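step=encode ok
step=design start
structure_in=
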């Protein structure tokens, strides 16, 4: 009988597609983003442009100037900006054509209060979130697997010591701990965030590794391999760790989602990725002052966080159904 907890048909495919799109956006951000995410072409005309807005872009010697409308004149170019008309002589305009100017700015998802392209910042924000999520999980895995393996396979006194350390760290409020650590080691760059998040999120993983290895090391096949003279490191590398990996992979998928949320929270509060470098969290934070008039500035990074986190949860459930034998047993019993 089919379990009522089975994932809806097509949800895993949709979630995988969303995650693939986020991954491609992060990896290929310099080629996908149409503009520099830090560029502020025109804080007057380019401020809070709605999604799908198009503006002529006049290239001058000192930078860009946007306009609602441009018209070629014998002397150069006439610009209409915020209801006012101004002239630019021919020698000042570097992209002048017979009809006006050769450049147009297309804002797929609108612009923010500093005239920066929201889509470009969203794409670079995906790169930051993925780098922090994956890098932090990789670091947490190294520390957690090492601590859990030492606790499960080492002397009893080492097991007791490591687990008491884990208990003490778990008892601390995680967000408060992270804010304290960020205040001690300021910087707000990707490397610092990976070190802080990965170095403070390995405790539950160590407990999981310890529990899995304790249940495996007494199994008959492990005892038989040891009886054949295999060394402890060989047994761990070839038999214990591979058999403990399925629940660890499921946990890793969910942990990436958790760390993306934590990074977004820290950036929203001003403790994570520092402005002007874009991250989904600080994009939402910057949108607070204009949420009523420029809804797109915070909506799209918020949707990106929600879609990524939910997709990771769906993929984790799919992995659990496929890799966890206990889930298979429950489905068969249901």
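sequence_out=
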């Amino acid at each position: 009988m089919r379990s009522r907890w089975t994932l809806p048909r097509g949800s895993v495919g949709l979630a995988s597609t969303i995650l693939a799109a986020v991954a491609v956006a992060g990896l290929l951000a310099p080629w996908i983003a149409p503009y520099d995410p830090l560029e502020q072409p025109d804080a007057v005309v380019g401020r809070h442009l709605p999604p799908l807005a198009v503006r002529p872009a006049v290239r001058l010697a000192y930078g860009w100037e946007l306009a609602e409308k441009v018209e070629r004149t014998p002397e150069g170019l006439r610009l209409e900006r915020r209801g006012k008309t101004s002239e630019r002589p021919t020698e000042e305009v570097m992209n002048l054509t017979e009809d006006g100017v050769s450049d147009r700015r297309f804002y797929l998802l609108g612009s923010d209060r500093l005239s920066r392209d929201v889509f470009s910042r969203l794409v670079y924000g995906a790169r930051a979130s993925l780098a922090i999520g994956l890098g932090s999980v990789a670091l947490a895995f190294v520390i957690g697997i090492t601590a859990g393996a030492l606790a499960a396979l080492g002397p009893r006194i080492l097991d007791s010591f490591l687990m008491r350390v884990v208990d003490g760290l778990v008892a601390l409020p995680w967000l408060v701990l992270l804010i304290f650590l960020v205040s001690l080691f300021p910087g707000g760059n990707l490397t610092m965030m990976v070190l802080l998040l990965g170095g403070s999120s390995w405790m539950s993983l160590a407990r999981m590794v310890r529990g899995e290895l304790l249940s495996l090391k007494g199994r008959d096949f492990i005892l038989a391999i040891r009886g054949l003279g295999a060394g402890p490191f060989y047994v761990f590398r070839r038999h214990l760790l591979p058999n403990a990996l399925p629940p660890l992979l499921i946990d890793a998928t969910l942990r990436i989602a958790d760390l993306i949320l934590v990074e977004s929270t820290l950036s929203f509060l001003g403790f994570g990725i520092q402005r002007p470098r874009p991250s989904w969290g600080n994009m939402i934070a910057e949108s607070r002052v204009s949420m009523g008039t420029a809804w797109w500035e915070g909506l799209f990074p918020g949707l990106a966080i929600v879609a990524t986190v939910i997709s990771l949860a769906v993929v984790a459930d799919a992995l659990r159904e496929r890799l966890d034998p206990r889930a298979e047993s429950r489905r068969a019993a249901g």
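step=design ok
step=annotate ok -> The two ends are 6 Å apart (CA to CA).
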